[in-house]
Amino acid sequence: MEDSGTFDSQQPDETTDQLHAHRHADRVTALLEPLDGVELGEHDRHVIEWLATHDISVVGTVASLLYRARAVDGAW
Prior knowledge:
The chain has helices at residues 16-32, 42-51, 56-71. With 76 residues, it is mostly helical.
């Protein structure tokens, strides 16, 4: 799934494939940030890569859930 928005963040010399790769990397980072310090296995990383293929509203919601879960009683 991809965003239906415009490509306004695309650099003039950036191909569409490069833009998609950049967006994917940004989404992976957004999902990994709230997991900082958590040991992740190969399957965990595979699922994060898969989640990063979804649109930004899905990635943002999952990242928000992870941050909120981490904040409960200062756990994690």
